[in-house]
Design goal:
The protein has 186 residues and is of the alpha+beta class. The chain has 2 domains: 98 residues, no CATH class; 86 residues, 2-Layer Sandwich (CRO Repressor). Helices cover 62% and strands 10% of the residues. The chain has a 4-stranded antiparallel sheet with strand order 2-1-3-4. β1 and β2 form a beta hairpin. The chain is elongated and about 100 Å long. It starts with a helix and ends with a helix.
């Protein structure tokens, strides 16, 4: 039993190489299949993720069921991911390469159907995003884009945006001036 826990069945260099290669492959697959963020995953996306982890398990660990082998694979995954995240944070070319760019899905109140179809987005996702950003209808949106991380960012048309505290203070100041002028003319 103790032997199986600590003695690796494959060399640690092979374990690291397998882990990095599987990580790279999955990163490419996800990079080219869509931009959905974790918050936007549906039931089918979760099923794919759970099954994918089982499908690639042997590619990562090979025939090695040792504790040390699992630790090497896990540490390699975490380090590669942390390194890649840091690279993306400091290098815009790496960010563009690994994450892509924003895709316009709404322009001047109209859905960009070709982009939405290519991204596999449902109309209900767009409607939900509009409501979350205090809009009532897609026609109120000046522009909307799906960001590389999967967030749907919308900008309402200026006439559709809610008043800010600064707007209200400005109106109150104007109203006070008008009231002062009216009182002076009485």
């Amino acid at each position: 039993m103790w032997h199986d826990l600590f003695v690796q069945q494959i060399p640690w260099v092979e374990k690291i190489l397998r882990t990095v290669l599987v990580y790279a492959l999955l990163a490419l697959v996800f990079r080219f299949t869509g931009k959905r963020g974790l918050a936007n995953l549906n039931t089918f996306d979760f099923i794919v993720i759970f099954l994918l982890s089982n499908v690639v398990q042997n590619a990562v660990i090979g025939n090695d069921n040792s504790l040390i082998g699992g630790v090497i694979g896990a540490v390699t995954l975490v380090l590669v991911n942390a390194g890649l995240n840091r690279l993306i944070a400091v290098n815009r070319h790496a960010a563009r390469l690994f994450e892509g760019h924003a895709t316009a899905v709404i322009k001047n109140g109209h859905v960009v159907r070709k982009a939405v179809r290519r991204l596999g987005m449902r109309p209900s996702e767009l409607d939900h995003a509009v409501r979350m950003q205090n809009g009532d209808d897609i026609a109120q949106v000046e522009k909307g884009s799906l960001e590389p991380g999967g967030q749907l960012v919308l900008t309402l048309k200026p006439e559709e945006q809610g008043a800010t505290k600064a707007d209200i203070e400005k109106l109150n100041a104007q109203l006070s001036r008008i009231e002062t002028l009216l009182a002076a003319h009485r």
